[in-house]
Amino acid sequence: MLSASRTASPNWFIAPLVALSLFWSDGLSAQTKGTLPDYVVKEFGQPPAVPDGAHSAALRAAIQTAFVDSFSQSNWGGDQQAALAEIVASNDPRIAWLISDMMRFASSGRLSATFAEAAADLLDIKPPAQNEWEVITNHLIAWDIPAPPNYLPVKRAIFTTVVPGWDRIFVEGDIDWRQVSWGGVLIDDRDFNRTDEPCNCIPAADNPEVSSAAEATWLDDDDVVFGIEVNGEYRAYPRRIMEVREMVNDTLGGRALGIPYCTLCGAAQAYFTDQLPAGIRRPILRTSGLLIRSNKVMYDVRTFSVFDTFLGRAVTGPLGKRKLQLEQASVITTDWGTWRTAHPETTVLIEALALGRDFDFRNGRDADGPIFPVGDVDPRLPVHEDIIGVVAASGVPVAFQRSAAMISLNKGQPIVFQNVRLVLEAGGIRAVDAAGSDLGSHQAFWFAWSQFHPGTALWPG
Questions:
Q1: 3-state secondary structure (DSSP) of residue 147
Q2: Is the dihedral of CA 82, 86, 89, 92 positive or negative?
Q3: Which of 130, 260, 281, 315 has the greatest CB tally within 10 Å of its CB?
Q4: Closest Cα partner for 319 from 337, 300, 339?
Q5: End-to-end C-alpha distance for the chain, whole angstroms
Q6: Closest by Cα among 241, 236, 250 to 206
Q7: Looking at residue 54, what DSSP letter applies?
Q8: Other Cβ atoms within 10 Å of 363 Cβ, number
Q9: Tell me: the pLDDT tens digits for 64-108?
Q10: DSSP secondary-structure letter at 129?
């Protein structure tokens, strides 16, 4: 997710150039020591004891002063410092989540260090000398520290002061609000088919203009594209465009699609946004400017329902109440030359949609590994290993190591897991069933797939 400038705000917090994201841990309780995996304890140590129950009236007042009232003042002052001291004296590690939220917007090293020292005291760790927010949030995630009482209202007050457009985003739902962080950009709240209008956001594209393969002379054969087929129609979505847009609402093969691309997860996905239950209008997907588990938080601009982007499941708002689950179509990650040769009839998005930009986050910004805190990660594969992910008919998620799968498939060796069979497709890999029907697979980084699908099966295991 790219950063962007924002509207005026109190002068002691600022929009950083890039976002630090929060990840979901393995779901094990941090309230009882000794329950964490060995690899977590080895890296982070044992978590502190965590109390149960509500806060006292005095502690609630201190939280209000330190984390809510401070936004209406010109800078951090004595009242806030005294309130923070009272919070530290509570010895409640749960409040470190709110300190982490505040650290996201700290404008100075001094203020960030103040917050970091307070959070470190609550977590009983050594205050970090650098990368304060990353260190604190890594511990919170890895230890799965519970949220403090009344967490969402306080967090909502903090975040909506920065971006008022989030007031309809921060609502109750089937979402873990601990994991939500700011991506450094504003919300894209433009109406459907108004994406030609400029915005101070990551600009989604609705009904993008396309050309034939022959007309796409601007693409080199080795340029990465995300290929999608629906009802015999093929379309290529160049990574160069998707790294700028991150969200496309399109129609292909007579079906409506929402196509998010998360640069942080290395994952382009395609969801059908039509043929929905009665009474549900096609959701128009947009980028909220928020992150969850290092994945972009997408939402429906018509209802402001938030979706779990990686799973295609509505988690808040009217669509969350309907428990809407979007069906996924396969996305083939390949190169333009191979895709065009395999499917000469393909259409492709036009160059103008890249807005004159040419990013390559994978080989540039992210080349040395995740740039955001990841907490604990399933150690079976390196964090940035490419996998092909799909959910089997039994409900079991399975990840196939892409490099190993390519070698086996090119040798003619079958790869099968329950009802899932991998096949080569235009230089990429697709998951199908025994009858050859599409199962909605896509490529992603291992850390992202394993965080969203804890306990996933892994091939080769």
A1: coil
A2: negative
A3: 260
A4: 300
A5: 32
A6: 250
A7: P
A8: 9
A9: 999 998 765 456 789 999 999 999 999 999 999 999 999 988 878
A10: S
